[in-house]
Amino acid sequence: MGINDEAKKWHLRIDQPFKMNDQEKDWSILANYGAVLIEGEMTPEAIKSIQTINHNVIFLDVNTNILNCNIIRNDFVEKTTYILDLLHSLGHENIVYIGGSIMDLDGKITTEKCDLRETRYISWMKLHNLDQYCHSFITDWSADSALKITDQVIQLKERPTAIVVGSDPMALGVYKALNNHHISIPDDISVVSFDDVDINRFLTPTLSSVYMDTKEMGKTAVRLAKDLITENISIPLTVTCHSNLNKRESIKTIN
Questions:
Q1: Which of 217, 165, 209, 159 lies closest to 188, judged by CA?
Q2: Deepest in the core among 55, 58, 205, 246, taking most CB within 10 A?
Q3: Structure confidence by residue, pLDDT tens digits, 96-117
C-alpha cells in the first residue's frame, strides 16, 4: 500500500513482473526498469547477482552485512538486543530463538547462516555467560514449521522460560505447540515476536510483538527509487526504519 500510494503521488508506474516464489522468473527483465524494489531477506550471492542486472535496486525490509547496497532496513537486529535485555531484566536466562530462513535467486529456502537476529541472539547469550542455554532454530516462516520446532524446544534438557520468535505467523505455531503440551503462556514460558499484526490483540494471552510501520517503509523505498532515477547518487544508501515493542500479556517476570 505504501509503495502504490507514494508512486501515484510522483506519477511513477509500478509493475510486478514476478514474485520470489514463482516457478518461472526472468531476472533479465529487471534491466528495463528505472529502479527495482525487492522485499524480503535474500542470500548475499542473490543480492550481488541482482545488482549486476540493475544498479538502481533497493532491498526492502532486510538486514544484511552486504556492502554497496541500497537498503530500506528495519531495526529488528537492534530490537532483538532490546528484547533480550528486557527478558533478562524480568529474570529470564534460559531463552530460545526461533527464526526464519532466507531465499536464493530461485526462490528456494537456503540453509545458510544469514539471519542477523540469530547472530545477535547468540552473541548476546555468550556475552551474558548463558552459553548453556543458547539454542537457536531456523526454519521456514510458516506456523506449521514453528509448531514442529517448538515440539523440539520443549524436549530440551532444561526447558526455556522464554522464546523469541522471528515473526507472528511463526508465533501462532509456537502458541499451538505449547497449548498442545499444556504449557502455560506466560506462567511457564514467555513469548515475544516480530510484526505485530492485528490478531495479536485477540490471542489468549495477547502476544507481545515488535511493530514496524511497513506502509511508511514502502513510501520511503519509492522516494529513494525516485531519487536514484532522477539524481546522480554516487554512494549506496541505507535507511533504517525504527520499530516499537508492544508489550502485552505473553511476557511475565520470573518469580
A1: 159
A2: 58
A3: 999 987 766 665 656 555 678 9
